[in-house]
Amino acid sequence: MRFPTENRHSNGNARLHGGHVAGVYGSALRLRRRAKEVGVCGIAGLVTFDRNSDRISVALETALGLLIHRGPDSLGMTSWASDGGARVDLGMTRLAVLDLSEAAKQPMSSSDGRYTIVYNGEITNFRELRSDLVAGGYAFRSSGDTEVLLGSWEAWGIECLAKLEGMYAFAILDRHEKALTLCRDSFGIKPLYYRQTEDLKLAFASEISSLLYMAEDQPKLNWAVAAHFLASGICDMAEETFIEGLFAVRPGEVLRVCLQSGDISHDRPSWFPAIDTQRGLSRTEAAQEVRSLVLASVERNLRADVPIGIPLSGGLDSSTIACSVRAVAPEYPLRLFTFAPSQVSAQEIPWASAVADHLHTDLHVIRPAHHEFLADTDRLIRAQGEPFGSTSIYAQFRVFQTMREQGIVVSLDGQGADEVFGGYHGYPGHRMRSLLETKRWGESLRFMNHWRQFPDRSLPKGVFHTGAALAPQLFGRLGGRILPGFALPGVDYRALGERGAFWAWPSTQDDMSGAEGARVKTELRASLTTRGLQALLRHADRNSMHFSVENRVPFLDKSLVDYTLSLPENWLVGDDGTTKSILRDAVRSLVPDSVIRRRDKVGFEGDEHWIQAQHTTMVRSIRDAPDIGFLDKRKVLEKLESSSRRGRVSANQLWRIFNLYRWMELLGVQGT
């Protein structure tokens, strides 16, 4: 464990030695004293057999200091040592979105002292659960959702997870059972990481930077994750992270630590959506039910005692959220924010403005200059904690920054609608596979003919996606080596293979098995629970939390997902190639028709010119960065410089290379 040396003064504060750590801790305390507004929650904890209480407390408090942006309101800690067993230390930095009183502070213990919880998130159906608990005789001391979660665990144990709607990551100590349990919500909206070392049975935290502090070994690059990322831009797959031995608690997973033996067990999620198709249901009935479920989720996500804002890109998803708020809360003061750094993104302004006009409210437009992106690059990389595939998330970063400057504390985001309803480009490969394997030859030809006529689609792209869906492992291996923008010289394939790593897209074969004729829904389920969406949720969480804004995602509602995945595939991706077909039907008369019908959606995006303009700076940074054992940096630089001379630089590939190297340098990650 990386314990700082200390010198205690009469005021009880520890003066830490060691440069950066002391600076971080001091800044954290100053922020905590200054904070007058609500912030965002972060949790951390240790399970160890080390009984040096002062050292452990200082280590945990300093680690919590690295999470102060997630909750500048207050910092709370507690510890407990079992007889003959491990010691548990729990801490959190608080967001007071519901119940701003002292009674809702954490760590929070049950009235009998058996349970203690630290919790990050929002249980959106806490009022309904509270009513059930009160009916059963539970006496509440606070009005927020933390005690509802604690009371639910007391009443129903681990079975309470099936009753929860919303987003959460929490740790709960059971003194009677001598156990610590970590839980994460079914979609992985809220983050939770953990690691084990020789002297730590378990350390956990909301963010990687905090967790790294609690272990004294230098972090090492996970070659398998890094290779997948450089080859494809894909990351946040399953439990592995970019750092060896550091893992994410998987969506819906329950991790339990026995404090007597130190043994750790993993339980799979209590909820996993089925993909069986309902029969005898009319499309009109389905659209009405989808509308009801969306409105109900939005209403639950409006529960807060602080101002709420909405990022609005001008597309269907964010427009649905904004218009749904107006439908369920007509008097609610809508605050809308959009991003337009370039001429391409500026095309979204008329669409976003049309929605704002429809709702009779103002629209805040963020227009950053190129030099602002350069100045914010390191800040963005640090905030994310791990590399990310493109600069498009900078748009979101700046939107949340502006929201906070305008006094917004909670955001309602349209994230997840593509995975719930069949968006993006319409999953053409999976739709074709469903049709082909059920011998609907004519339908498959008609579908592809319709699909290719949409903007940014073509027959070659459709054929490629179909091949990738039919033979995912083959395309994964070949694509990373031969496709422009993915192939890279200087890769030591043999060294990767010796570590069980490959230069390829991660395989999706296991997720595709056993779902003949329902490949789109199978892929949507996989995206919702194991891949794809996880990266987007990480981006949104870190971007929003960096500015102490809580980002809520109403489309990620278990009841809504269960229902949509029970519908016929062509109600999701239409026979005419239309994406999110049932959602478009559901929100007619709610969202402007022009938004429902549009085909040229680009959404929040970065500006490729930002990267091109900083090519020289990025190449210089790569040259000075630590080495990666499976990559010949000289050959990589030769390719980048040659591509630049020919005007053929792949902005995304340049960004991935630069981002990985720069992240390693900023976090002190060893690449060999």
Give a written overview of the molecule.
With 672 residues, this protein is of the alpha+beta class. It has 3 domains: 14-267, Glutamine Phosphoribosylpyrophosphate, subunit 1, domain 1, CATH 3.60.20; 273-470 and 516-608, Rossmann fold; 609-667, no CATH class. The protein has 28 helices and 19 strands. It has a 6-stranded antiparallel sheet. Strands 6-7-8-9-13-14 form a 6-stranded antiparallel sheet, with helices on one face. A 5-stranded parallel sheet has the order 17-16-15-18-19. Strand 13 and strand 14 form a beta hairpin. The protein starts with 5 loop residues before the first strand and ends in a 5-residue tail after the last helix. The relative contact order is 0.12. Mean pLDDT is 84; it is low at 1-40.
SSE layout:
Elements: E1 6-8, E2 14-16, H1 20-34, E3 42-48, H2 53-65, E4 75-81, E5 87-93, E6 108-109, E7 115-123, H3 126-135, H4 145-156, E8 166-174, E9 179-184, E10 193-195, E11 202-205, H5 208-213, H6 223-232, E12 246-248, E13 254-258, E14 264-267, H7 283-301, E15 308-311, H8 316-328, E16 336-339, H9 343-346, H10 348-359, E17 363-366, H11 370-384, H12 393-405, E18 410-412, H13 417-421, H14 428-437, H15 441-451, H16 459-470, H17 472-482, H18 493-498, H19 509-512, H20 519-529, H21 533-546, E19 550-552, H22 558-564, H23 581-586, H24 593-597, H25 608-613, H26 615-624, H27 633-645, H28 651-667
Helix pairs in contact: 1-2, 3-4, 6-28, 7-8, 7-22, 12-21, 14-15, 14-16, 16-17, 26-27, 26-28
